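Appendix B, record 7
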Amino acid sequence: MSIDSRLNHAFIQAPSLPLSGHTRYVLFSDCHRGAGTSGDNFLKNQHLYFAALQYYLEKCFTYIELGDGDELWENRSLTQIKSIHNDAFWLLSDFYSRGQLYMLYGNHDMVKKYPNFASCHCTDYPCSTCKPEPLFPDITFHAGLILKNQSDGPDVYLTHGHQADFFNSVLWRLSRFLVRYVWKPLENIGFLDPTSAAKNNTKKKRIERAGMNWARNKEVILITGHTHRPMLGSGDSPFFNTGSCVHPRCITCIEICGFCLTLVKWTLYTRPDRTLYVAREALADSVYLDHFLFIDS
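Structure tokens (predicted):
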């Protein structure tokens, strides 16, 4: 199956949400929430993520996670992840209870595509009172999601992006085995996983080029994660990337307010009195969907 075929397949049964001048969506990807060990790359940014989620709850955004939310290659179970990061799951459950949360799966949490995974692992989480609270009862994890433009502009297609990566899509079980039993221990002594798109610039460029070509051919906007490299599209390149939540000193996401897309960074800043605060910063000028009106969607 070719890259185009795999991307097409992600949207065969993809649900649709409206995209209008009044809708608000925030797109996160590649949180890689872990089990609190030295290999938990999310741990260093958990406070930034919590602050960002509080902001988006207050501003009535709908939260959409584009896959690899939980690190289920290095970790066998979601139970400890939910326990370690129960504050984040508390806020995510709040989005879900309001009908403002949608989850996609990526290669590192591919097991979420199986219906019994959600029913077994996502119904509740351990809160601080030690009494389990509802998490995502009856949730379905999707391969893709479509934001249907209610105006004249193009639709926005959302998926994780691993479909453009043969080793992490078709051979994902082999890749998981290697990460879990080979590259994880080697990374602890300084080696980098050469199969990871996030750590291999050549692979990043190849995946981004494939996504851009697919979006051009389909005449849609494509937003993914997977490579961890944040990217805003342009009039001749309808390909976007949310970045990740495991950058060294920040997390990134894409906000969609009406027909405006903004790449945002959340990071720690210092006031003149040397107190710390969490700041929201736009990384570049916002992009408007009417820039893509040459696309006949």
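Remarks on this record: The first helix runs from residue 3 to 10. The chain has one domain: 3-292.
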